[in-house]
Write a structure and sequence with these properties.
The chain is an alpha/beta fold. The chain has helices at residues 2-11, 16-28, 39-50, 56-76, 95-111, 169-176, 190-195, 214-217, 226-230, 233-236, 242-250, 252-255, 260-264, 285-295, 321-332, 336-349, 364-376, 392-395, 398-408, 419-430, and strands at residues 117-118, 121-122, 130-133, 136-139, 141-142, 148-149, 167-168, 182-184, 202-204, 239-240, 272-280, 355-360, 381-384, 409-414, 438-440. Mean pLDDT is 78; it is low at 5-18, 20-37, 77-89 and 179-188.
């Protein structure tokens, strides 16, 4: 018994529960040792103490540890992989940045008569199957076939050429995993180099410089590939994955096509008549659009095609920063009033337009104001990204679902600074849609 009081006096922090267990143990085991408690008594006391209720101090400590762990996970998702990945592909970017590179890489492989190796869409190289983005879980990797089909994802080419089909990274590993591969840095002369490479398995080393960088996609140089890429099976035979197509068909009632063929067809005849799709990028563009004005940026390369009706020319405002910023924001981050005015003008130019589909990362409550304003302007209906009904698997490819709908719209109004809009225009051209049906904010 003396030992229990001595323990409380020495520690000064023993809880009532710990002291109670001490008294019980002292009565049950009255024998002791000259140097203190037996080991069994101490072990039981420690066990009892571990089941004491949480104190405020312990709760604060647990919360701090949880936040530190969460911060570690968020930071870790951006750390490059520790494994030896033989391919230096883009990862951690939006779908359309990845899609741009994949289309051009597969076209490069096609004209060089070699197989293109396609990878999963990779957001994070974390070893876990999930990562955190916008305070929500999202898959770290999604198979490319979940988004697209066609030659870039290993599909057949309806072409007379004998170019080999694209293969998955897993197949490449199986066939070439043990081969002595040679890295090549191929820029403007890549086609000639690839034609004369004797090796069966070829890797392109882009560690020093991206093979197709953002300056190529963001400038008019990309237009030199416009005609050959459109006429190639890479874009001509491009189709969305069955998962994406099933999501579009699932929303038949919302999209109101004239017939089921308009939903299922992949050619220009299968348009969603009466529908104008408009791309409204929000979120990070609140910061990005003012930066574009500071940099004096132009539209994405494809959006600078000379046959497109809408041109972007900030040169008259070069000496007036405020008017220059306003000009950029009108075309990059327009207000509700500006959007209504723009769509009103487009409706006058394209008779028959009655409904609006909005591709946007905007909050649902913010889009309600736009919907009300458009209905007051005479539009029959407005459907947006947040209205589309998707199951769990389809929700992971929602960006592709948006793009598939925009591709089928009778008229598309894009954001000239966005790779999403740029890719939609390219895909609309590949399916034979009139170039003048593509407009900009």
């Amino acid at each position: 018994m003396h030992d229990c009081y001595q323990l409380q006096t020495d520690a000064g922090r023993t809880s009532k529960l710990e002291h109670m267990y001490c008294l019980i143990l002292a009565r049950q085991w009255s024998f002791g040792t000259a140097n203190g408690w037996p080991r069994r008594r101490l072990w039981l006391l420690i066990t009892a103490a571990s089941f004491t209720p949480f104190t405020l101090r312990r709760l604060v400590l647990a919360l701090a540890c949880t936040l530190m762990l969460l911060l570690f996970v968020i930071l870790y998702q951006g750390i490059p992989p520790s494994f030896d990945d033989i391919r230096d592909i883009l990862w951690g970017h939006g779908l359309n940045n990845i899609l741009q590179e994949a289309l051009l890489m597969s076209y490069l492989a096609y004209i060089s008569n070699v197989s293109f190796v396609f990878e999963d869409y990779t957001w994070s190289h974390t070893p876990l199957p999930w990562t955190i983005y916008d305070l929500a879980l999202r898959p770290a990797r999604i198979p490319l076939n979940a988004f697209i089909s066609g030659p870039t994802a290993g599909g057949p080419m309806n072409d007379t050429s004998q170019a080999p089909l694209a293969v998955s990274a897993e197949f490449y590993e199986h066939v070439c995993g043990g081969a002595d591969t040679i890295p090549y840095l191929i820029m403007d002369w890549w086609k000639e180099q690839l034609e004369y490479v004797p090796d069966m398995c070829i890797e392109i080393d882009s560690s020093a410089h991206d093979l197709f960088d953002r300056f190529l996609f963001g400038g008019p140089r990309i237009l030199s590939l416009w005609e050959p890429l459109l006429s190639s099976p890479i874009l001509r035979d491009f189709v969305w994955s069955p998962l994406v197509q099933s999501a579009v068909a699932r929303n038949f009632a919302l999209l109101q096509p004239e017939s089921a063929r308009d939903i299922l067809s992949t050619d220009s005849a299968g348009a969603l008549h009466g529908l104008v799709a408009i791309h409204l990028r929000r979120g990070d563009y609140v910061r990005h659009c003012p930066n574009l004005a500071k940099w004096g940026a132009e539209y994405m390369g494809v959006s600078q095609h000379p046959d497109l009706l809408d041109k972007f020319d900030p040169s008259p405002y070069a000496d007036d920063p405020e008017r220059k910023l306003s000009y950029y924001l009108e075309h990059c981050l327009p207000t509700t009033e500006q959007i209504v005015a723009r769509l009103h003008k487009i409706r006058l130019q394209y008779t028959g337009l009655r409904r609006v589909y909005v591709l946007s990362n905007e909050w649902a409550w913010a889009l309600e104001g736009l919907k009300k304003a458009l209905k007051e302007d005479g539009w029959e209906d407005l459907v947006s990204t947040v209205d589309i009904q998707l199951d769990r698997q389809q929700s992971y490819v929602s960006m592709a679902v948006d793009m598939a709908i925009a591709e089928k719209a009778e008229v598309f109004v894009g954001n000239g600074f966005s790779s999403v809009s740029s890719n939609v225009i390219w895909l609309r051209m590949a399916r034979g849609t009139d170039l003048t049906s593509n407009r900009f904010l």
